[in-house]
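Exercise 7. Given the encoded structure of a 360-residue chain, write a plausible sequence.
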């Protein structure tokens, strides 16, 4: 079996469901159930004995060591993190705690377990660390996309803590020989994406008749990857990746934030039009920018294609159409999240961002 950390979050839950749809190997799913963890994401696995959910913290070495001893996984896939850049700006401590200290504690428990395994199991074992393109910093409009050799230059507390975790993973391979694999991925989108992030926030706000907030001029560029493609890339890296290597994973879909929001409005105009017949674009507002906002991310995903034969299947058009439809079909999922805690986050993040200019 494998052990997944953070498997109740957006990408982790998609991964666990996909994993069990593609094979029969069981999953131990260790998740702290922070505000971002949601057991509803795993609803389709209710009653499936191949999925063992454990409520716990990656930083709790005693608990992790006991799990490793009990289940003897052949691999640990590390998704758990604090993941939202805006939250890292307003409260960085939790990011240091989970992304740096938590990863360190997890690595220590895994090292102890792995080093005591019999030879064959020790050789077959893998620790796969899921990281982000944000560790590479920001690009100018004409810069080459991030390659695995691009120097690290993280700009937010979130990306700094992810960079620190990447360095720890690298050091555990280099120093102790732990068989690690690292993936650095671009912006994911798809089902179960928590509605604090741009795409699900815009879908939820549009339907609720609320403002669609664009930070700054909306010309920041992100490279969007459908979450199902990311899950397939992780499976491929786990099975075929070379020990100690890093693989960049991207969607070859660079878009400005404004064009993403326009696309979402246009899809919603077709699938779920406003009652007054106007376009959802009238709900767009420009608000104060994110401090230290990275201007452009772009991933050069040629290494994983060349060496492991992976490339994304979805175009942005196909992936975003599926995603919007999923949100329309799962309004209860969004409503359940929009609890008091979610509302207080929205108040904290957006109240200080004065509206600068309405737009069509
Ligand atoms: P998420 O915030 O949706 O989910 C994170 C999950 O980790 C939650 O279920 C949460 O409960 C759990 N968690 C948090 N702290 C924990 C702890 N101390 N112990 C155990 N569980 C804990 O995040 P996501 O968007 O699914 O991202 C997953 C991983 O992928 C993260 O490492 C993130 O940095 C990385 N990543 C995300 C994206 C993206 O676009 N979302 C892109 C590149 C990389
Ligand atoms: O690049 C990978 C990263 O992508 C992951 O490592 C992070 O975990 C993930 O959260 C995501 O980070 P971003 O900051 O790029 O995602 P977010 O959805 O928060 O924002 C996307 C862009 O949209 C970014 O340029 C900020 C902008 N934005 C975001 C929000 C929430 C807005 O303009 N308005 C908003 O209200």
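Solution.
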């Amino acid at each position: 079996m494998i052990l997944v950390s953070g498997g109740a979050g957006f990408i982790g839950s998609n991964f666990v469901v996909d994993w069990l749809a593609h094979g029969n190997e069981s999953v131990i799913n260790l998740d702290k159930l922070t505000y971002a963890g949601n057991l509803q994401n795993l609803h389709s696995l209710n009653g499936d004995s191949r999925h063992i959910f454990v409520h716990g913290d990656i930083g709790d070495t005693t608990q992790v060591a006991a799990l490793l001893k009990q289940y003897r996984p052949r691999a640990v896939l590390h998704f758990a993190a604090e993941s939202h850049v805006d939250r890292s700006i307003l409260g960085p401590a939790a990011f240091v705690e989970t992304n740096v200290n938590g990863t360190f504690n997890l690595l220590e428990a895994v090292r102890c377990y792995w080093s005591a395994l019999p030879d064959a199991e020790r050789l077959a074992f893998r620790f796969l660390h899921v990281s982000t393109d944000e560790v590479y910093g920001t690009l100018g409009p004409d810069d080459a996309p991030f390659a695995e050799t691009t120097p690290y230059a993280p700009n937010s507390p979130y990306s700094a803590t992810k960079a620190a975790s990447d360095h720890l993973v690298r050091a555990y391979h280099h120093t102790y020989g732990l068989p690690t694999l690292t993936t650095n991925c671009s912006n994911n989108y798809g089902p179960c994406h928590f509605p604090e992030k741009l795409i699900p926030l815009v879908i939820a706000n549009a339907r609720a008749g609320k403002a669609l907030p664009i930070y700054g001029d909306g010309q920041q560029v992100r490279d969007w990857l459908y979450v199902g493609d990311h899950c397939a890339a992780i499976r491929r890296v786990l099975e075929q990746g070379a020990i100690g290597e890093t693989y960049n994973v991207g969607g070859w879909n660079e878009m400005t934030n404004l064009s993403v929001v326009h696309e979402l409005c246009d899809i919603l105009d077709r699938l779920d039009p406003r009652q007054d017949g106007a376009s959802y674009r009238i709900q767009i507002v420009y608000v104060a920018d994110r401090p230290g906002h990275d201007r452009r991310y772009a991933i050069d995903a040629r290494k994983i294609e060349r060496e492991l034969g992976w490339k994304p299947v979805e175009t942005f058009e196909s992936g975003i159409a599926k995603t919007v439809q999923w949100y329309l079909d799962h309004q209860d999922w969004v409503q359940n999240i929009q609890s008091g805690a979610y509302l207080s986050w929205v108040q904290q993040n957006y109240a200080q961002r004065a509206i600068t200019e309405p737009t069509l």
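Remark. Residues 2-190+225-252+297-314 form a domain with the Rossmann fold fold (CATH 3.40.50.720). Students should compare their own answers with the one above.
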